[in-house]
Amino acid sequence: MNIFGQGWNTLGSWDNQRNSSAEALRALNGISQATAEQAEGSSTLSFLRPGQVFQGQVLNITTQDVTILLDNLQTVHAKLGESVELNIGQKMSFQVKENQGEQIFIRPLESQGISGGNPAVEKALDANGFAMTERNVSIANALMESGMPLDKDTMRGVMQQSVRFPEADIKQLVAMNRLQIPVNESNIQQFAKYTVHEHQLTQNINQVLDSLEQTVSSAFQSGDVSQIQEWNHQMIDIFGWKEEVPHDNVPTAFQSDLSLFTSLKSQMSELGMKPDTFDQLAENSKDFGSLLSNISDYLEQENQLPAEVVKGFFQSDNYRKLLKKGIQEKWLLKPEEMKQPKEIDQLYERIYEQSAKLSESLNQSGNSGQEFAKQSQNMRENIQFIQQLNEQFIFAQLPMKMNGQEANSELFVYANKKKVQKGPEGVKVLLHLDMPNLGNTDVLVRLVEKKLYARFTLEDQTSVDVIAENMSDLSKKLEEKGFLFTNEVVKTEPKLSDTVSLAEESGKSDAVIEEMLNQDLITGQKRFTFDMRT
Predict the structure, then answer these.
(1) What DSSP state is assigned to residue 213?
(2) What is the DSSP letter of 527?
(3) Per-domain residue ranges for the chain?
(4) d(CA 90, CA 92)
């Protein structure tokens, strides 16, 4: 097995390969354009002597040539000999066979003992013609642990992905392939967040709104009243707040935040608005968002108000709270809105489109802060990732508003989405709730005809007692609808394991995510990995 190296120091020898090798050099090592070019034009390597061993990383491979990056950032352009199997990104040792000054003959050295003594890994790599490198062994091990095939195409695919995304964990890449999730930069970042339970859409929404408050506060300190009002109008249009409703909403529309409602009424009174006028605006407001629209219209129509007074309203805490509250009403579901699956689809579409338009509006006005842009983009990428998951699973994140408090919930149906059938065990659903008072709550529901079973798992005994004490009310309502209901309420059992995951170490838990990411797409059953030790 030989590699015949030549042309190491000629300045023109890299012209045909300059673009591809430079790109690979930057991608794999994160160095600058200038450094890449300097490496390509490296000085002579005549100091190498026969028998000498050096380290290198494969940057690029064509049908006959290979480009190797040395530890000192010098590069080698070599011709491949027969029976040589190399992979882009592979790090290995080479030995100098002969040095003829302008031409040097080298050969790769096979690594020993990397597989950890696993004969199956060694056999798979050898049968497919792959070198026994640390990276290739890790890929083969990860494929074996996940139950995926060790054929050449599968292994080569993961190898190429590991070179394209060097920061990604090998096991994560394998898991994404097993779950048929497209491997790209955005999905890799989102998948990593899901595995450590930092993925909640409700949290994304709060982060976006917090950064929006900061952006608005900073932006409205400068600019004249007309500019501020113009951008305010754009937001009202984006969220569709300019609408009137019958006069029967005052008792219920603002009960979720009476303190804000009262503070606004007091503030508008200080601006000269009569209490009756404010009540009339409220009666014509469906929610906080439409109240913001009605107040904005009033301020425009009251020409006698000084510009600084109007500007003071838009710079106030009440304005930012009203804006945030209005968006929350658009982006959080109420329990009564969850009766139809289309409501969830419409929610995702609404959040995605409105946040994108809001970002565009901010950019055009020159008010977009870096933090807002970052958080808004992350939220949209999360929604896109949920859609990717739904290509394979029945899964939904539900950012909710319950009794005036925010809650995040996740729903997972134990079924292959492409082969959804009701088997003898009926339909099985896992619901995860993250609520301020009860904490993490997992509800496993199984329905067979009219027999309904539910298992509630909570974090502490106090929460268990609260649910158990109120279970009779739920049972009665379900029985009235014709279900034969049985249930149990239990406390989360500590996991007996020698290994602790990053999610467990941080005190986070999400049964839905753990169950879903361990499902087999073919059988629909949970996949287990066993750690066999002697």
Answers:
(1) H
(2) P
(3) 3-109, 119-178, 201-355, 382-517
(4) 6
- Looking up tokens 């390509």 gives 40
Task: Give the span between the Cα atoms of 85 and 136, in whole angstroms.
Answer: 12
pTM over 0.85: no
In our burial notation (b when 16+ CB lie closer than 10 A, e otherwise), range 262-300 reads ebbeebbeebebeeeebeebbbbbbbbbbbbbbbbebbe
Angle at 97 between CA 94 and CA 102, to 5 degrees: 100
The answer to whether 28 and 10 are in contact (CB under 8 A) is: no
Distance between CA 422 and CA 516 in Å, rounded?
Answer: 18
301-320 residue pLDDT tens: 887 788 888 999 999 999 99
Kindly report the CATH class assigned to 3-109.
mainly beta
Q: Quick one: fold of 382-517?
A: Transcription Regulator spoIIAA (3.30.750)
Q: How confident is the model at residue 336 (pLDDT cuts 50, 70, 90)?
A: confident
* Domains 3-109 and 382-517 agree in fold: no
Q: Which of 74, 44, 43, 42 is CA-nearest to residue 57?
A: 74
How does DSSP assign 170-229, residue by residue? HHHHHHHHHTT---SHHHHHHHHHHHTT---HHHHHHHHHHHHHHHHHHHTTSS-HHHHH
Residue given tokens 């020993």 in the structure block: 112
